[in-house]
Model the fold of this input.
Amino acid sequence: METSEILKKVRKIEIKTRGLSQNIFAGEYHSAFKGRGMTFSEVREYQYGDDVRTIDWNVTARFGHTFVKIFEEERELTVMLLIDISGSRDFGTIRQTKKDMITEIAAVLAFSTIQNNDKIGVIFFSDKIEKFIPPQKGRKHVLHIIRELIDFEPQSQKTNIAEALKYFTNAIKKSSTAFVISDFMDSGFERELTISSKKHDVAAIQVFDHRETELPKVGILKLKDAESGQRIYIDTSEKKIRTMYKNLWGEAQLSNQKIFTRSGVDTVSISTSDDYVKKLMQLFQMRNCKKLNY
Done:
């Protein structure tokens, strides 16, 4: 891709995602993803105007009148984006490819991070670590990340989420917030996800395309695995074939959800036809509710 074309794309994404992060996400991000950066300080008696969700019910029951939890916030947070850049990200059938959506989501999170004076870093991965961008602050750093999201070409087309998580856990020593952005068409990553989530505050963002969930009834269809290159022909006019395909997707989704739950990882699934703004807000709000219930 020509340099001028890349710069135009970077600028276009900056205009869209920076505005979203300023007008929509900044406050939600701040409250939702300061998680491990919040330390319990003390309890005090309830005062008019306090958020009732901060009530400490154990202390309240013990003393017979209402107390609320007080937290202190660390001044700076490190945010890491673990981004799947394997071959399957180029798939897309409706509004855009998974790569396009991943780029916008990552850009929104990156701008939200620097607006809160936090550091942002990135790990690009396939079945190996393709590129590591150490955490830094500033708009120039975010624009560099966006450019890499647009133009970086991986050496491998395959996926190994466990390898990315292992590298992340070893490379980032200080407790941080991490977003794993992938279609999660992989297996064998539960152990590394659990280890990472014990040290860091991890959230999983699945990006997928509707056509990956079920087959259209269009007769003989040639399918190609974007990661292995394998091609097969299937007859989509057969209902049992379409049903089997749909069931396999559903089983994989259920398996991943169980992994996220056991690992203590918050997650959201976003289709290329979805409004990712609403989906990310759901993730933020989910985390806020959980945090206030601690």
